[in-house]
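Duplicate of earlier report; Defensin-like protein 234 input re-posted below.
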Amino acid sequence: MSNLILNYFLVSCILMFFIMNNVKDVEANLTPMGCGGSGKDLFMGGCGPDGNKTCINEFVKKRGEANRPDSCKCDEFSIQHLCLCNSNC
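Output:
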């Protein structure tokens, strides 16, 4: 019985490894945000109490102050959050 539990645990760890590596590949292919446009990106963690502010801060950290969005919408997906942001310039 304990071998069965150990096997399930190992399979779960391997599956999580493949999922986490796939998430990194998705992050690299998300759309850039230009002036007057919109952008989306995937970040680790949750949206927090103010998802708009969380996403704006994440965009600035990753893309620089020049790419600061004006507003964002934050959607949580378990251990990650997706930011959909707009920039009016």
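The chain has two domains: 1-30, 32-89.

Merging into the original ticket.
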